[in-house]
């Protein structure tokens, strides 16, 4: 796995409206590294569609590192002018590059070279901040509110409660280098952990909050992983195409006496994260 380019990822952190645009010099450098329309006119006789030639040329430039991870590519209009084609042809080439995972498109912001994927390790003692910090990523979590719900059959099983028992449902967003990489939900038994939602908002850490309410340590009992398509809102927040599945992890953590502490459900941007299980 390629070591994450932290600075480039921070530069394009999701949700930053003040992202600097490419300077004229940067745009010129990228365009100069590409074949011009003459080369593509010569290639037409080979029976290769123009959009495929453009996709190949851009892919080679990216693979050779001539455009850095996180860097914004020239606009469709600039590329169309360079290649001597219409914008529809460029758009088709870019769609191919997106399917390859070489670029990502953010509506209203532009097209960027994709950054390296983050390995998120899951083991007996999975801790979000420790997990990422150990690998050179700056990790933060933002707790966004809570509500009380009645345990359904799945929650009742995970928390070892009766169906209908009161449960505290806490929402959060996880960031790596400022970019949103997952949306999450944590469920606690209200009878055991009433008030932990306030502590979570104060300390911003599940591990620290549990210590403050009398659980000094906990471990992962089970982890279930599956994929599903994102809702439009999830795709927008995670800066992920709506036609690309999310990774979903469902975990049950227990204290040293094997009593359930919480159930967690995280939806990960599959463009940014891959799950690694430690044996």
UniProtKB/TrEMBL annotation:
Q: Which residues form the signal peptide?
A: none
Domain of life per record: Bacteria
Q: Which GO terms describe its biological process?
A: negative regulation of DNA-templated transcription
Q: Where is the HTH gntR-type domain?
A: 48-116
Fetch the SUPFAM superfamilies from UniProt. Answer: Chorismate lyase-like (SSF64288), Winged helix' DNA-binding domain (SSF46785)
On whether Transcription is a keyword of this UniProt record, the answer is: yes
| Keyword list, A-Z | DNA-binding, Transcription, Transcription regulation
Give the InterPro entries listed for this entry.
Bact_HTH_transcr_reg (IPR050679), Chorismate_lyase_/UTRA_dom_sf (IPR028978), CP_lyase_PhnF (IPR012702), Tscrpt_reg_HTH_GntR (IPR000524), UTRA (IPR011663), WH-like_DNA-bd_sf (IPR036388), WH_DNA-bd_sf (IPR036390)
GO MF annotations, alphabetized: DNA binding; DNA-binding transcription factor activity
Checking CDD domains in the record gives: WHTH_GntR
User: What name goes with this protein?
Assistant: GntR family transcriptional regulator, phosphonate transport system regulatory protein
Q: Which organism is it from?
A: Roseospirillum parvum
